[in-house]
Design goal:
Elements (H helix, E strand, L loop, with lengths): L1 H16 L1 E5 L7 H8 L5 E8 L8 E8 L2 H13 L12 E4 L26 H57 L2 H8 L3
Antiparallel strand pairs: 1-3, 1-4, 2-3
Length: 194
């Protein structure tokens, strides 16, 4: 039984080596968009969007993407480290790094690992450090929430601006197309000897 647990954990570690952690994703990025964007580096085996449980909308802000082999995963990390990589036309560059064992919810238990939990006594010196850490975590969560709201507002503004520009360009194209189609351009050219 012990060897099967070790084999299962070894297979899991291989999966971790083939997986890339992507962060700073736009809310418009879906599983299909990620697959299409990363297929240029190799075959995407699976995509797991990780929801943000601290925000009310459960916006996926990061993902674990498993590639066919570890070489493809390393290539993605190197490429995104060297140049900005954007998806869905949003102004936020996506960050990538190699996945770590702790990032997976479905990880098997490491053979031989034991976890011991205990309550801290308020007189224990580690109690003050734990209290400071808890306060710092809450402060960081509040700051991250504020920045997320600001970023989403900016992205929405940009998406609206892009949509308006697209509509205006379509109207111009439609006007030019109608002038050419009904012969107005030819008549004007003859009239002004052009």
């Amino acid at each position: 039984m012990e060897s099967s647990a070790e084999a299962e954990y070894a297979a899991f570690e291989e999966k971790v080596k083939r997986t890339v952690y992507l962060d700073n994703l736009s809310p418009q990025v879906t599983e299909a968009v990620l697959k299409a964007a990363l297929n240029q580096f190799g075959n995407v085996t699976s995509v797991q969007l990780i929801p943000n449980y601290t925000e009310p909308k459960n916006i996926p802000r990061c993902a674990l993407v498993e590639m066919e082999n570890s070489k493809q995963a390393r290539e993605i990390v190197l490429e995104m480290a060297n140049s900005p990589f954007m998806m869905s036309g949003q102004p936020r560059p996506i960050r990538a790094r190699a996945a770590e064992v702790e990032m997976f919810d479905d990880r098997p238990r490491k053979p031989g690992r034991k976890i011991h939990c205990r309550w801290l006594d308020p007189k224990d010196p580690d109690f003050e450090a734990a209290k400071k850490l808890k306060h710092l975590t809450r402060k960081h969560a509040a700051e991250a929430s504020f920045m997320l709201q600001h970023q989403l507002t900016e992205e929405e503004r940009l998406a609206n601006q892009q949509a308006e520009t697209l509509k205006a360009n379509y109207k111009k194209y439609d006007l030019i197309e109608s002038v050419l189609a009904d012969g107005t351009a030819n008549r004007l050219a003859r009239r002004y000897n052009m």
